[in-house]
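Sequence in, structure out.
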Amino acid sequence: MGKLEQNKLEKRNRLENAAYQLFTTKGFQNTSVNDIVTLANVAKGTFYLYYHDKNDLLNRLIINSCAHILTNAMLHARSTCEDIIERLIIITDYVISCLEKDTALFSIINTSFSWSHVMNEVTNSEGSQLQMLFNEYSKSLKTLGYSQEEATKLLFIIVELIGTVSYSCITQQFPMSIDELRPTLFKAVRKILS
């Protein structure tokens, strides 16, 4: 990577780090583009080279966060066991634990730990680790007799289920705490796959 590309990446990272810090402390609505560029120590025009507006930046943070959590969850599950169904249970537990531990991150992700963000990263990041892991997990589901289309649908259902249940149980304790619902969630994932 050349110096110019390195500088661009550094500025983009500073903008994303500043936005993360401000969104988690001041809130999205109370943070302006000026606040972000000031904290990142970049010119306002630089912001608009990378993002259309702060909503665009928020979406990038959500996509990056979802992809990071899911990639780490898949790698962890891969190193833990061979059985695909149990791997998906481990992924579910890992994602929930991440969202529980990092309430600042969860305040940004909100209800957006969703399939659309995951698939955006999978389809738009050729050769990304998440894309390779997604393909690996799809192939594993195919060994259980599912077609590629069915495997994709099953992964969709599981990601959406994790996001929705986690949001309700962690942020609102509704209908109960995530710890109380976790065993039932695992049972549901197993049933979906059997």
